[in-house]
């Protein structure tokens, strides 16, 4: 059976589409299914933000086919690992959990690099291009660690 991994941010157009694209590029699609979602409903059906598409393209990642969707409670049934981009997203997902089993699937993605330090991937939406470069670099490092862990499964 595949291992299913979900990346979650607020809008599902800036951070989590990058996390999805990066982790996909580091894992075998026959073994690992990667998806992304937003806790909010602002961008359902939308393409990733052009700034995320651009930074991905400079790294030879094509994320243009992704479309925004909202996190659903049923995602707890489908996914084994749910990575929140920041502590707000983490709290929102935990708030939707039906039981302890659901809660155990939810992680703060930068805990992979800075365990227990509650470090956020900052929301780059209101800022400039440098914010997206920073986000990419953080997610690249975190996804490398996640991909290595998943290979050991
Ligand atoms: P994301 O960034 O959560 O990384 O996709 C955002 C995108 C859109 C909004 C907020 C954050 N928004 O409020 O529309």
Question: In terms of topology, how is this protein built?
Answer:
Elements: E1 3-9, H1 15-26, E2 32-38, H2 50-58, H3 75-78, E3 81-84, H4 87-96, H5 100-103, E4 106-108, H6 129-151
Parallel strand pairs: 1-2, 1-3, 3-4
Helix pairs in contact: 1-6, 2-6
The structure holds 4-nitrophenyl phosphate.
The site of 4-nitrophenyl phosphate has 12 residues, from loops.
How would you characterize the overall build of this protein?
41% of the residues lie in helices and 14% in strands. The protein has 153 residues and is of the alpha/beta class. The protein has a single domain, classed as Rossmann fold (3-Layer(aba) Sandwich). Strands 2-1-3-4 form a 4-stranded parallel sheet. The model has no long low-confidence stretch (mean pLDDT 97). It binds 4-nitrophenyl phosphate. 4-nitrophenyl phosphate (4NP) binds at residues 9-15, 38, 42-43, 123, 125.
- State the shape: globular
Sheet with most strands: 4 strands, parallel
Q: Supply the helix-strand structural class.
A: alpha/beta
CATH architecture term: 3-Layer(aba) Sandwich
Share in helix: 40-55%
* Sequence of strands across the biggest β-sheet: 2-1-3-4
Mean pLDDT over all positions: 97
How many separate helices? Answer: 6
* Number of beta-strand segments: 4
Named once each, the bound ligands are: 4-nitrophenyl phosphate
Number of domain units: 1
Indicate the CATH topology: Rossmann fold
The value of Rg in angstroms is 14 Å
Q: Outline the low-pLDDT stretches.
A: none
Amount of beta strand: 5-15%
C-alpha end-to-end distance: 11 Å
**CATH class descriptor:** Alpha Beta
SSE arrangement, N to C: EHEHHEHHEH
């Amino acid at each position: 059976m595949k291992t299913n991994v979900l990346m979650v941010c607020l809008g599902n157009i800036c951070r989590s589409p990058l996390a999805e694209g990066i982790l996909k590029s580091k894992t075998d699609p026959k073994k690992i299914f990667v998806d992304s979602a937003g806790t909010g409903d602002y961008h359902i059906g939308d393409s990733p933000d052009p700034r995320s598409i651009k930074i991905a393209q400079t790294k030879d990642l094509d994320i243009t086919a992704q479309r925004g969707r909202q996190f659903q409670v049923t995602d707890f049934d489908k996914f084994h690992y749910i990575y929140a981009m920041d502590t707000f997203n983490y709290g929102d997902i935990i708030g939707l959990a039906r039981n302890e089993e659901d809660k155990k699937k939810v992680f703060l993605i930068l805990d992979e690099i800075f365990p227990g330090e509650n470090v956020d991937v900052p929301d780059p939406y209101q800022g400039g291009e440098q914010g997206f470069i920073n986000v990419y670099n953080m997610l690249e490092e975190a996804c490398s660690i996640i991909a290595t862990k998943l290979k050991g499964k």
